[in-house]
Write a structure and sequence with these properties.
By secondary structure, this protein is of the alpha+beta class. Helix content is 30%, strand content 20%. The strands form 7 sheets. The chain has a 5-stranded mixed sheet. The chain has a 4-stranded antiparallel sheet with strand order 3-4-6-5, with helices on one face. Strands 7-8-9 form a 3-stranded antiparallel sheet, covered by helices on one side. Helix 3 (100-108) runs antiparallel to helix 4 (113-122) and helix 17 (443-456) packs antiparallel against helix 18. The longest helix has 18 residues, at 461-478.
């Protein structure tokens, strides 16, 4: 359930808001079937640099786009929305805009309101005319077009509705949907938000320039109710709901219903090493342990389908590693691993592997037990430990300084379709908790971050991809900070009468193409 409907102001728990935001709003760009950037609210754009090293985008907006009340989308809607986002709960996400750092710094130190407003006026978002938007970034960012497709704080806001309202009136506008507000651009708008009952009622928006692609006899779904329930599967079995996520990997091994569907995610499940704790402080030891893992065997039979991998970047991601690049990363080689680990001091003690406790769509318990069994074949004993306080335990340090775990497992999901989103976790300020910033005096991480900075600033896609491939080789190959295991999929069940009901690659419910089957098919109750 959403925590807010105010997509510009957002909320620290932003992931919970995405299904509603994606159904009701749109960005300057959107993703195609291959996850490449395609035109969205902007029909085209130009990209240029200036003498100050900044990157300037000129977006030409579609002139047929209307808000749900029939009013036209304008460039001013982006200016108002992005300035609001710079004052919102996730304002740091806007830091790439020219002038944003100044505005953010002023807010952080509690500067007078007049100074903050003046700084916001100087931020690099400008309405050239009603349908032309100029965006200036402080420096080139190759991921920018991918981010504005999915990160909803970059979506426009209905300026005519919001400008001139007090803060209290704006909160009321978003907190109490009524009279067709808040306005929407997508195929649905929010009609009701029952916070206590944890339900959101969406109604079809006939004014949207993005209607679902209707086939013969298909019709738009006039009303959609999203609800939170601990007994979703039971409600589905009783015919009370038409869609439900399958959140239990264990359940899939018991029963795989006929209407089960799968969406490959832009996501990676990996094993991480505590690089500060001997003997894992030696990269050759970490590489050998990564080579001891038979990824196919780790996930075999646990799910209806699986995508084992030794790469951090999923193959469906634009810019993913080529087969040749993947071959340079640690792959399963039992004999090579056994030889490299023979006689290594410090491996006579058990290694402590922790993972997140509880059943989920990733079969963590089974994978953890199989990792322990596979490492035992190369003479390494592993103690497996589920933790309800997983994040705190990963961060916990001993009295001597290093973190107390040896190995941990977790899933990393993309926020947008670009390699950058997979690497930020492992930068110096990222929440990786591996300690690899201390390795070799910090040189490998510094080199890794230079490669990322170069890739982020490289306008040529092929050159940027090569730089990200080198960064992946430092992280996964040379330093072996992590050992990727597989790329998870999300499973769900949906009634046959729902066409286009889907989950997007970022693990969010996707309603953009939803339509109802022809009446004859719906009555027949056909199943996929």
């Amino acid at each position: 359930m959403p925590t807010t409907l105010d997509w510009s102001y957002s909320d620290p728990e932003s992931w919970a808001n995405y299904p509603v935001m994606l159904a009701t709003q749109r960005g300057l760009t959107m993703l195609g079937p291959d996850n490449s950037v395609q035109p969205g609210l902007a029909e085209r754009w130009e990209r240029a640099g200036d003498l100050k090293g900044r990157e300037i985008y000129t977006f030409h907006l579609r002139q047929d786009v209307r808000w749900s009340d029939g009013s036209s989308l304008t460039a001013r809607d982006f200016v108002v929305g992005w300035r609001r986002a710079l004052r919102g709960r996730e304002r740091g996400e806007m830091a790439d805009l020219d002038g944003a750092v100044e505005a953010l710094t002023l807010q952080e130190r509690g500067a007078p309101e007049a100074e903050v407003r003046a700084a916001l006026e100087r931020v690099g978002v400008e309405a050239v005319d009603a349908h032309t938007l100029r965006v200036t970034l402080a420096r080139p960012r190759s991921y920018f077009l991918a981010r504005v497709a999915n990160v909803y704080i970059f979506y426009p806001a209905p300026s005519a509705d919001l400008e001139g309202k007090s803060d209290e009136e704006v909160r009321d506008y978003f907190d109490r949907p009524r009279d067709g507000r808040p306005l929407a651009l997508g195929p649905y708008r929010v009609e009701q938000w029952d916070r206590a009952g944890e339900r959101v009622r969406l109604v079809y928006n006939p004014a949207s320039a993005f209607p679902p692609p209707l086939g013969p006899g298909e019709t738009p779904a006039p009303v959609i109710t999203l609800m939170k329930s601990e007994i979703g599967p039971a409600l589905y079995e009783r015919g009370r709901v038409d869609f439900v996520f399958v959140d239990s990997a264990a359940a899939l091994r018991v029963r795989r219903p006929d209407d089960l569907q799968r969406e490959p995610l832009l996501s990676t499940y990996f094993l991480a090493f505590n690089t500060e704790r001997p003997p894992l402080n030696r990269p050759e030891v970490r590489r050998a342990l990564a080579m001891a893992l038979d990824r196919d065997a780790l996930v075999a039979g646990l799910l209806p389908a699986s995508r084992p991998s030794n790469t951090l970047l999923p193959p469906e991601l634009p810019g993913a590693a080529t087969a040749e690049e993947a071959a340079r990363l640690p792959r399963y080689s039992l004999e090579a691993a056994r030889a490299a680990l023979a006689g290594v001091p410090g491996l006579d003690r058990p290694l402590r592997l922790i993972y997140r406790q509880g059943d989920g769509f990733v079969p963590e318990v089974a994978i953890a037990e199989r990792v322990a069994a596979q490492l035992a074949r190369v003479g390494v004993q592993v103690v497996v430990e589920p933790r309800s306080d997983f994040s705190a335990e990963v961060a916990r340090r001993s009295a001597q300084g290093p973190r107390v775990y040896d190995l941990y497992m977790r899933r990393l999901g993309a926020d947008y379709a670009h390699p950058n989103t997979f690497f930020t976790l492992f930068e110096r300020e990222g929440n990786h908790q591996t300690g690899w910033e201390t390795q070799a005096g910090g040189e490998p991480m510094a080199r890794f971050e230079r490669l990322l900075e170069a890739g982020d600033g490289e306008p040529d896609e092929a050159k940027a991809r090569a730089l990200y491939a080198q960064a992946q080789e430092v992280l996964v190959g040379e330093q072996a900070v992590i050992a990727p295991i597989y790329h998870p999929d999300r499973y769900y069940r949906a009634r046959a009468r729902l066409h286009g009901m889907d989950v997007d690659p970022f693990n969010f419910l996707a309603l953009r193409s939803l339509r109802l089957a022809p009446a004859t098919e719906a009555r027949a109750g056909a199943t996929p």
